[in-house]
Structures are given as C-alpha cells and as structure tokens.
Amino acid sequence: MTYSPTASASWRPVAWLAPHRIALIAIAIALITLAAVFMRWDWLADYNTLAIVGLWRTIWILIVTSIFGFVLAVPLGLAQVTGPIWLSLPAKAFCTVIRGTPLLLQIWLLYYGLGSLFPQYPWIRESDLWSVVRQAWPYAVLALTLSFAGYVGEIMRGALAGVPRGQLEAARAFGMSRWKLFHRVWLPLAIHKALPTLAGETVGQLKATPLVATITVIDLYSVALRVRQDTFVIYEPLLLLALAYMVLTGFLVWFFNSLEARIPVRVG
Q: Could you tell me if 219 and 54 are in contact, meaning their C-beta atoms sit under 8 angstroms apart?
C-alpha cells in the first residue's frame, strides 16, 4: 500500500464539520431547546413591536454616532500629528478629557446641563428647534459622537503617524498637492492600518448604547428593563438582549473583516 501525498494534501474537511464545531452547535441547540421549553416567553407577543423600535433605535444611534464620530476624529488625529501647537493642544486636551471621564457622566452633563439651558430662552421655545432640543435623543447622539471621536481621534493619530514617510515623500516627488496627497495616499493608508482597532471601537460603541436608556431614550436595553418592570420576568428578556447584542457584534466583526480583506489600499 503506497501513500499518496497529493491526494492527502488535496483533501480538506469542511470547516463546519470539524468535531469541535459540531460539539459547539450541539450544545447551542440543546441550550436553545431547554430555554424554549422551561423558560417563560409568553410576554414576547406583547412587546415585539416595542422591541423592534428599540432594536432600530440602537442600530441607527450606533451608525450615526460612529460615522459622525469618525468624521470628527480624522481632523483631531491630523491636528495632533501635523498641526501647530494652538491646534494640537486643544485636540489632545479634547481626547484626554473624553477618555478620562465616564461616558455616563458625559451623557448626563449634556442632557441635564445643556438641555436645561434651552428652556430659558423664549426664542428657542417658540422656534421649530424646540421640538428637537426638548427630546432626549439629540443629547444621547451628541454624547456618543463626542465619545467615539475622542477615542478614535487617538487611534487616527497613531495611524497617521505610523504611515511610512518614504511613501509620502514618493507622492510628493510625483508632484501631488498637499490635499491630493492626504486623501489619496496618507488617509487611505492610515485607515487601512487602523481598521482592526476601529472594529474594536465600533463594537465598544455598540455596547455603550444602553447608557442612553438612563435619559429616557428607548433602545433595546430599555425594552428589556420595561419587560422586567411590567412582568417581573428577569432572565428571559436579558438572555434575548444578550443574543441580540451578540448578533449585532458578529455582524460588525464580519463587516470590518470583509472591509479589511476586500478593499485594497489605493495609492496614487
């Protein structure tokens, strides 16, 4: 009997049929079955509409605050790397204050502090702006955006500073203007370098969204709290909440992994 290295090397087991994956899938199916049989789920029909509203609000708060936070983080990082001292010092101070204070405190300062100032001005109460500033979600969005910008600003500072100078000098040798060099060479290279860390920060941003429930914004976490208060059912809504956050986290990880693998870095 002869051994054929070619046939052995060409054979690969299907990833999902690996023994440890089969064991994990069996354990997951057993746990789901036990939870469905022995736990109480009759409250789901009464709260499914509210849960959809909370899920949608969690998702759009995550998307909006991450996008606006990143847009603000790029100039914060750039100012610390190349800016004069009158720009770099305020940018560094902003990132330090944001990272040095709890996000819950920032949300409360904006909602109870800034939000209490607007009712004192009659021209605001009589304008269309009043219908926005009297609600809680603008302060939640602002606080989460500033928080994301503070953390990602530091990440972009490191990523921009880590781009090899030789590539920037080569771009200058081709006669690129400063703006063209920045948006076609420097920024794409920095973003590609920072993508793994940005994925972690975005997952952290998702996990920070339940804090908006403390200022009456109805998100996914606040729905679980309401179910517990109304029905005295504790574990079931929390388990469902954990499952929802795990699914969202899995999607974010998949999205950033796909982005990192499929989008090439364009230089020039």
A: yes
